[in-house]
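Please describe what follows:
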Amino acid sequence: MIIVGAGPAGLKCAETLGNSSLRVLLLEKNAEIGPKVCAGGLTGKDLAFLDLPDELIEFRYNQIKLHVNGLSTTIKTGNDFAFTIDRRELGQWQLQKLKQFSNIEVRTNARVFEILNDAVVVDEQPIGYSFLVGADGSNSFVKRFLGFPPRNRGIGIQYIIPTERYRDFEFFFRPKYFAAWYAWIFPHRRYVSIGCGAFRDVIAPADLKRNFQRWLSDRHIDIRNGRYESFPMDSGYEGIRFGNIYLAGDAAGLLSSFTGEGIYQALVSGEEVAKMILNPDFEPVKIPEVLETKQKHDRLIQMMIDAGNARSLIFSVGALLFKIPRFAKKAIEAFG
């Protein structure tokens, strides 16, 4: 069996297949497993699922700061619910867990150039498969082979800035700049991710970049030493199983259109896809829960898109409501 993509979904899928009767080949196009253009935020669901060692978690938060135009509020609870992690360290930790299994081979610098009905072509070499899993992100090659062009409605852009100046976990809602989405500040040990996202059918990528630069200037954020990155976000769900071919994580369009979260969905789908392959009678449990939450998030974000000029008012009312504990709790549950 072949897994294309060694992100959280592909690595979790391979781990679940460890010590099975299948020969597993995990292909990663990059030279190193782990690094990915990502803000590096985790939720409590991610930690509960992964059981990460404490040393991998960079910062823990029991509060997040929300800024709506000129209004700021803090959502706080007694328990930590937001976390940051370095994606390289997460990937390397997942990779290390695979080394105990003799039936798993991992290849890096292995870009898939062609997919056939019974083989993938890597470096001009066809490799046959009985099962194929596309865990290759929002621009999934496997998804395109299945006849589903990625619906990259979303785009995220960020600067990775080497600084210890920022230590708060923050979201900024400025409809003037980001329409129905937001900007963020996610602190890490040696750097900070400061970025934003939006939907292509609401804001063109070039306009989003200009708006982001204006917002950075408004906040007096120094980006001179920062590394600019951009990434697509595909939240168009098409399905999981297509005969002997499966999709997982961002490739399956499981990304939340509301929060931008995708790691938990990747882990859950990677594991349950593997269980479906091992046992044809296995009925996924967590994937339906993910899809139910995703549908709620899709409705919420569509409501905000349709709200047009009323977005500022809606966000402002929300920020005021979050000062009330029971509404703050609901916001945290929606966040993850």
User: Anything to note?
Assistant: The chain is about 35% helix and 25% strand. The first helix runs from residue 8 to 16. Residues 2-60+86-151+234-299 form a domain with the FAD/NAD(P)-binding domain fold (CATH 3.50.50.60). The radius of gyration is 20 Å.
